[in-house]
Amino acid sequence: MQLLDTGIRRVDAVFLTHLHADHVHGIDDLRVFTVRERGPLPLHVAQEYAAELAARFPYIFDEGVQPNPGTTSPDVELSTFAAGEETLVAGFKLIPLSFPHGHVHTYGFRVGRLGVVVDGKTIPADARRFLEGVDVLVINALWWGNPHPTHFNVEEAVEAARSLGARRTYLTHLTHRLEHEDLRAALPEGVEPAYDGLTVEID
Length: 203
Prior knowledge:
Elements: H1 2-6, E1 14-15, H2 21-24, H3 31-37, E2 41-46, H4 47-56, H5 58-61, E3 76-81, E4 87-89, E5 92-101, E6 104-111, E7 114-117, H6 125-131, E8 136-140, H7 154-164, E9 168-172, H8 180-186, E10 191-193
Parallel strand pairs: 1-2, 2-3, 7-8, 8-9, 9-10
Antiparallel strand pairs: 4-5, 5-6, 6-7
């Protein structure tokens, strides 16, 4: 629905951060893009998650499972990556970065002057060395106060951005406890709540 709202008709690649349901259970919606392009869509996932992803969706990843006549399944080409090792995604050189997220790891990345932290709780040293000095940081934050075991709250996200020296920061993964304008007014200079349809241009 968000793609429709923003008029996006083409997806060049997909970067999966981890395998929680809210991040992968929309995979069937890739079908329209692969049918339209008449070719496989590159899908990037951490090496540690590749086997589990294939096991969850055998109708997509098992070549022995064919769609029923008259139907289709997403045509994707699976590629794996490892934290700290540069990988090419849709023509951009990304450095995948690992963050603790409860019992699993989630993967953000650094690409050019942009850093992305998805569903993380802390910034480990291995990731920090790649993120320090980013111009734009995108980082998750749930709400004010009441620390969460697997996500940053707003205060923690703001402090993480400050410690990294980010020039501009966008907070994502915000919950219904926050009103956009109230949050924007309360945040320090250089930190803003993200919003549907926001785009970030990178070199």
